[in-house]
Amino acid sequence: MTEFGQIVDVVDTGWNADALICTFAVSHADGFMLFETGPQKTIEQLAARLDSRGMLASLTHILVTHIHLDHSGGAGWLQRQTNAEIVVHHAGARHLQQPERLIRSSRMVFGDAGFDALWEAPEPATGAVTSVSDGDILDIGGVAVHCIETTGHASHHMAFHLPESATLVTGDAAGARFGPAEGIRLPTVAPEYRPSEWLGSIKRMQDIPGGQVRQLAVTHGGLFGDPEQHLGCAHANLSSIVNGLADTPDNELPAALRDLNTSRIANHPDFDELDQKYEMINASFGCAHGIIHQRHRDQGAA
User: Fold this and answer.
1) For the chain, is the Cβ count within 10 Å smaller at the N or the C terminus?
2) φ and ψ at residue 280, rounded to 5 degrees
3) Is the pTM of this model over 0.90?
4) Cα(82)–Cα(60) distance, integer angstroms
């Protein structure tokens, strides 16, 4: 008999293509916990998939790595259906309960038509919301969940370590991956991209003692059983952005970043499919804008 917490099930949200936005279900003594929800756009489809696996009725906890809509947009709706408790970084809790500011900022980025086509407006969380901080350890039905603050992509980003299954749920902190680890792309989007913090967060994940992480649960990609290689490539790829594009003028940055990203998978036999997936979830133009925003912010603070 499998012990609780030993198995991590990938439940795809079905957003646009396979594995573009994944959630992860883990059993415990009182039911199931779910990491990530994906956006409001696909939450009813996700709920149907959870129900078909016998998980929806016994869902007790929803844990989100951060509040960006592709990770947490469906949390409020799913909570209303299940009465599950939501767990989120302490800086993100109020935005799940009062998502108006999050909606406004997202509409500014994507435009009204793009916002509605991609994400849709999240429903507010009206039930229990637990705020967590770095170093917190939760006991959910006898399964330990260790909270590791992993900022750099977002100031409210939390990775979750599950020792029972030796799994690290990484959100966006370890990038997106749809093929070889060498092709990992980092979502360097505005307004909170901070490269030095992000490199430090990857190092924190790498520093979890050997053997305690045997697989990564990557929201944009799925489960990967090569954590050392994956995190090493994520660190190297982010470093190449920081160092290799430091002197690239702003007006040349979108093309330069796209060239850098595609060069890592240029020889892959499924290049077109991989590149399309990466661009759907982490468009090079948007990521370049985030780098430009970070440059100007840092220059203004100097």
Assistant:
1) N
2) -65, -40
3) yes
4) 7
**pLDDT digit string (tens) for 253-302?**
999 999 999 999 999 999 999 999 999 999 999 999 999 999 999 988 76
Residues 26 and 16: their CA atoms lie apart, in Å, by 24
Q: Which amino acid appears at position 120 of this protein?
A: E
Contact 224, 182 (CB under 8 A): no
Q: Using one digit for the tens of pLDDT, what is the confidence trace for 151-201? A: 999 999 999 999 999 999 999 999 999 999 999 999 999 999 999 999 999
Task: Please count the other Cβ atoms lying within 10 Å of the Cβ belonging to residue 7.
Answer: 13
CA gap 71, 64 in Å, rounded: 7
Q: Where are the alpha helices (DSSP H) in the chain?
A: 43-52, 69-72, 75-82, 93-97, 100-118, 195-206, 227-244, 253-263, 271-281, 284-301
